[in-house]
Specification:
Helix content: 25-40%
CATH superfamily: Aldolase class I
Strand order of the largest sheet: 1-4-5-6-7-10-11-12
Order of helices and strands: EEEHEHEHEHHEEEHEHEHEHH
Mean pLDDT: 92
Shape: globular
Number of helices: 10
Number of strands: 12
CATH architecture: Alpha-Beta Barrel
Strand content: 25-35%
CATH topology: TIM Barrel
CATH class: Alpha Beta
Structural class: alpha/beta
Low-confidence stretches: none
Largest sheet: 8 strands, parallel, barrel
């Protein structure tokens, strides 16, 4: 039985609204996160990712309320992230109805957080998001919404993330994010061959061909996109039919 590839819309939430930028900046409004999520579920999305991009500056409880509302209206699995740095941050989000949580900056700063979260909630709940930029001859991991370079390198950090028990890796190429010129296929191919946990491709989707390419040239299990879905450039149903026609296993 071939594992079906997943299509995942990503919704960046800022002050209760969905927003989208290019290379992590220049944000514009893309609509109500609950309504958008509900529409994507009806159109055939396999999962959703909600990232609270203003989490560190805002009151966390606001986002928990939003998660509760999403859970009431959306009938597919969804992951939430943004500003999560402790076990205590995660419990209310899962109790509000999220299926998984995503951690990024806090895990880079304190890798032991991954172990703690896995011990508390199980691997299947913990996604580690990695934002990296190709610098010189290496993929350098960045934190704080892609604004701060670190001393970590993509492939060694991904191996550590897996060894600490994370269930999934969400890799965003910052060089490709919002450009609509295609995913970072070479890096994704290497990454998903080097780790034994599912890898979600993120950053660069602009046309159906980019999804075809990432699914045929790499073993990634899912592809994530934002603006092309938010602004109606690609319909999820059309995308999945095209992928299926090309022999890529998707849930229709």
């Amino acid at each position: 039985m071939m594992l079906k590839k997943r299509i995942i819309p990503c919704l960046d939430v800022n002050n209760g609204r969905t927003v989208k930028g290019i290379n992590f900046i220049d944000l514009r409004d893309a609509g109500d996160p609950v309504e958008l999520g509900e529409a994507y579920a009806k159109k055939g999305a396999d999962e959703l990712v909600y990232l609270d991009i203003s989490a560190t500056n805002e009151n966390r409880s606001t986002f928990t309320e939003l998660v509760r509302s999403i859970a009431r209206h959306v009938d597919i699995p969804f992951t939430v992230g943004g500003g999560i740095s402790t076990v205590e941050d995660v419990k209310p989000l899962l109790e509000a109805g999220a299926d998984k949580v995503s951690v990024n900056s806090a895990a880079v700063k304190n890798p032991g957080l991954i172990d703690k979260l896995v011990n508390a909630f199980g691997s299947q709940c913990i996604v580690v998001a990695i934002d990296a930029r190709y610098t010189g001859d290496r993929w350098i991991v960045h934190t704080h919404g892609g604004s701060k370079p670190t001393d970590k390198e993509l492939f060694s950090w991904a191996a550590e993330v897996e060894s600490r028990g994370a269930g999934e890796i969400l890799f965003t190429s910052m060089d490709h994010d919002g450009t609509k010129k295609g995913f970072a296929v070479e890096a994704l191919n290497r990454l998903s061959q080097e780790v034994g946990i599912p890898v979600i491709a993120s950053g660069g989707a602009g046309e159906i061909e980019h999804f075809t390419e990432v699914f045929t040239k790499t073993p990634v299990t899912a592809a994530l996109a934002a603006s092309i879905f938010h602004f109606g450039e690609i319909e999820i149903g059309t995308l999945k039919k095209e992928l299926s026609n090309k022999g890529i296993a998707v849930r229709l």
